[in-house]
Amino acid sequence: MKMVEVSGRTVEEAVEAALDQLGATRDQVDVEVLDEGTRGFLGILGSREARVRVRMQFRPEEQNRKAREFLEGLLRRMSMECGLETRFGDDEILHINITGGDTGILIGRRGQTLQALQYLVNVVANRGRAGGGVRLVVDAGDYRRRRE
């Protein structure tokens, strides 16, 4: 639930209600006013409530942190001494390269293990994100770059 539509007597009242539902602050969301509403005649006849659509902002830093934590924990449990290099590409894709250690284990046969690892990292990093979040590409020892 990262996007809500809420009605209220005023736009500000509707925004506050949406922020309460999302558990967010004003700087963490984008607000779209669907209908400003009207007071009507003498505040009685023809009044309409204000409607807003509030959506959580896209924060790639959060996905980067989650992906790194997951990968570091996984590599630690596998007793692998590896480092992680991350960069955002021009295509707004987060590239994570696993360096050092025996990366052949992480690559697997024809890259199948690496592909499965990439899937898991994407699921963990984008859990709870509306619209899918950021796309992550996981590489080990520049395997994908060499294959290109």
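Above is the first protein from milestone M3; the second protein from the same milestone is given next.
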Amino acid sequence: GIVFFGSIVNASLISLAEQIRQVATFRAIGYTSWQVGGMFLRENMVLTIVGTCLGMPGGWALTWLMANSYENEMLQLPIVTAPWIWFTALGLAIAFTLAAHAVVQWNVSRLDVVDGLKVRE
């Protein structure tokens, strides 16, 4: 969870730093910090949900390959999973993304619009 939270916060803060001029422009033309933060939230949610939905079957396939590579006449590693594990993983991914967004929203709220507009590309 800590690694997932840290990677989402890191990616979000890098995205914010890359788009600081656009964020400052949105703020200058009248968007509230919550509206600008909502854009980052939607972007992160799409990435998280798509990544999780693609990553879980990929992880299961790698586990299956690893279990089959160790299989011989003396040892067989079964893959045991329950449906609730898949939903729990997706729910935790969304929860950690929301927690990471709180950090991003705090940074968007603290942004000085004038300094953001002065940034050279």
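Note on the second protein: The mean pLDDT is 88.
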